[in-house]
Amino acid sequence: MTTAAVRGIDAATTTNAQLIDWVREIADLTGPDEVVWCDGSDAEWDRMTSRLVEAGSFVKLNEKKKPNSFLAVSDPDDVARVEERTFICTADETGAGPTNNWVDPAEMKSTMTQLYRGCMRGRTMYVIPFCMGPLDANPPMLGVEITDSEYVVASMKIMTRMGTDVVKLLDERGDQYVKCLHSVGAPLEEGQADVAWPCNDTKYISHFPETREIWSYGSGYGGNALLGKKCYALRIASAIAHDEGWLAEHMLILKLISPADEVHYVAAAFPSACGKTNLAMLQPTIPGWRAETVGDDIAWMRFGEDGRLYAVNPEFGFFGVAPGTNWKTNPNAMRTIEQGNSLFTNVALTDDGDVWWEGLEGDPQHLTSWTGEDWTPDSDKKAAHPNSRYTTPISQCPVVAPEWQDPNGVPISAILFGGRRKTTVPLISESRDWQHGTFMGATMSSEMTAAAKGGLGQVRRDPMAMLPFLGYNVGHYFQHWINVGKGADADKLPKIFYVNWFRRGEDGGFLWPGFGENSRVLKWAIERIEGKAAAEETAIGYVPTPEALDLEGLDVPLADVEAALTVDPEEWKAELPLIEEWFEKVGDNLPTSMRDELEALRLRLGA
Ligand code: SAT
Ligand code: MN
């Protein structure tokens, strides 16, 4: 197909010649029937969603229950991020480090160019100008995603700032944007009918941090396809942040307001599907305390002029895990999606055109499951996929903090690291200092969830919850964290804590109720920052005495709380070889300070 034959190529709304050339080059390579420059308007959303409904890819939900909202079900083999098909392509293998799949950039580009050749035949190629973070940031963090998926266009409208306003910024910025190329890899021959969820068995999610490019092929799902999210805002941005001296982290941003109206912002890192969205929209159970949301997944943190660390949420929407979300666990997420303007992926459809998933209130007697089968309470299969998602605008969140779009971000008082651990890790512990806190993050571990394919339940080290999202060498990343701390005024740095809401008792049940009750744990952390709360020094850090936690009105036996807070030296001694093994894996680039921390821990444990 020649360029001239591609309708829309000259309808570019930008004057950025470099961008127009790139779009032309990709159209020549992929051979779509048409090129459409997205403007981000509501009319465009209507066009996209109508087209998807017509194609059988979207079901329009009941307008009374979920206005302007749609359900999509994916191919059963395209339901999560594919870590084994995710690549960091740096010139030198060390650049990607031992935790990422590495392929030489030239080799990867050659392989993928073959795949991309003619891959958009019979489809429309969309050009999506987008911005991660506020448009008035200095500098605005721009991107352009080329995709042949209408689902991606609709999702990007919710998840990013996209369209005409971004074009104005692109016009001024030459090549200062991240080039994101995506195809589902399912060309259509003349007369061939499309499927509801086109994708390809061959999948590549490739990143080129040195040239700030992302090439994705074969998957239409979430983090594999909405390239502004994990690919840009974490993998590429972490590499940029390393070069420029800031942090791009897999963290929610929460605003806590005390009864005395004192405000503290907390950033918290947990692996995917460990309750970040729930914590981000926390409804405190302690009287007088309030919480507001700044972000639920990603934090970009830079030092402000006052020497404090300020966090910005680069996203515009939530891509939350549906199962387990309900009016009790996350009423604010429910209120957000209830207003509509949302997409649901791989959840079940009720007979009256609403959505349902495991854990949601209601007692449906009949559903259409995510695989399109009849479902009744007797069915032995789940109605919704465990990694099914809602995609919904942050602006609809009833507790969104008014400053959520402040280009300067919000000053962070505390950083929480946490994972899902049945044993060993106490409810909360406070680090001795920044370096020890970095060690806590670097050695974080968690049982695997459905957010990635494979390995469910297995304990793995997931440093700072960044294992699948780091765009460079993990040893250099730890050193970067240390350097960030060294360059700062120690008094102004956030205090670092390590939490575990998921510890189990001997009967196998959770020791701590979690959700809104986590406000009690956060309150202790804030009071530590203010120098008001008591703690006991243990081998792993400062842990609250049960009396130091506000337990008033909490319906949990004190023995369970005590068990949740326990630091058992024997359990921790058993953890040492696992940390040792992890550090072996990090290899030569492990900072000596991290090894020093491990040795200090060993000494304190008397091991
Ligand atoms: O699919 S995503 O990577 O966007 C979601 C997640 O794993 O957190
Ligand atoms: Mn995430």
Structural account:
The structure is a single chain. The chain is an alpha+beta fold and 607 residues long. The chain is built from 16 helices and 31 strands. The protein folds into three domains: 205 residues, Phosphoenolpyruvate Carboxykinase, domain 1 (3-Layer(aba) Sandwich); 272 residues, Phosphoenolpyruvate Carboxykinase, domain 3 (Alpha-Beta Complex); 80 residues, Phosphoenolpyruvate Carboxykinase, domain 2 (Beta Complex). A hairpin with a 4-residue loop joins strand 10 and strand 11. Helix 11 packs antiparallel against helix 12 and helix 15 packs antiparallel against helix 16. The longest helix has 18 residues. The protein is globular. The mean pLDDT is 96. The site of manganese (II) ion has 3 residues, from loops. The site of manganese (II) ion (MN) has 3 residues, from loops. Belongs to the phosphoenolpyruvate carboxykinase [GTP] family. One of its GO terms (cellular component) is cytosol.
Helix content: 25-40%
Total count of strands: 31
CATH class type of the largest domain: Alpha Beta
Ligand identities? sulfoacetic acid, manganese (II) ion
Taking pLDDT < 50 over at least 5 consecutive residues as the criterion, the unreliable ranges are none
Q: What's the helix count?
A: 16
Mean pLDDT: 96
Terminal CA distance reads 69 Å
Q: What is the beta-strand fraction?
A: 15-25%
CATH architecture of the largest domain: Alpha-Beta Complex
The name of the CATH topology of the largest domain is Phosphoenolpyruvate Carboxykinase, domain 3
Radius of gyration, taken over Cα atoms and rounded to an integer in Å:
24 Å
What's the number of structural domains?
A: 3
Largest sheet: 9 strands, mixed
Shape: globular
Structural class: alpha+beta
GO molecular function, one term: manganese ion binding
Family: Belongs to the phosphoenolpyruvate carboxykinase [GTP] family.
Cofactor: Mn(2+)
Pfam families: PEPCK_GTP (PF00821), PEPCK_N (PF17297)
